[in-house]
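Sequence of Serpin-ZX-like protein (Trifolium pratense).
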Amino acid sequence: MVLPDDDDNNGVVSVNNLTKVSLTIAKHLFSKQEHKENNVLFLPLSLQVVLGLIATGSEGPTRQQLLDFLQFESTDQIKSFVSHLHSVVLKDAFPSGGPRLPFVNGVWIDQSFSLRPSFKKIVSNDYKVTLSSVDFITK
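Predicted 3D structure, token representation.
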């Protein structure tokens, strides 16, 4: 998969960066003794999308640390990747219906927190994620 419209083949570099990030996460995960002796299900793309979403809602040093780890230049580049992911990999591509790759995301936030309307819009429009307010204290 190549990312859309980046100058100087940055799309290809970005895919290579995603692979590097996946391998970094995998090496860390599988370095733990408890994971060496058990079966582990690891979905690096899901983790990268979630970390990208968190980066989009973050500011300052936290955002920069996430961008550095994910090897993206900006949250706009992350949103472009996620949009491309939805249009190519997750679209309904079969004559009989169904996505090429089922991918379900949701964000559950404690009802005592409020989110900026701009972030809610990004979550809904760019990430195609359902946002739900939940009572984590009593339920």
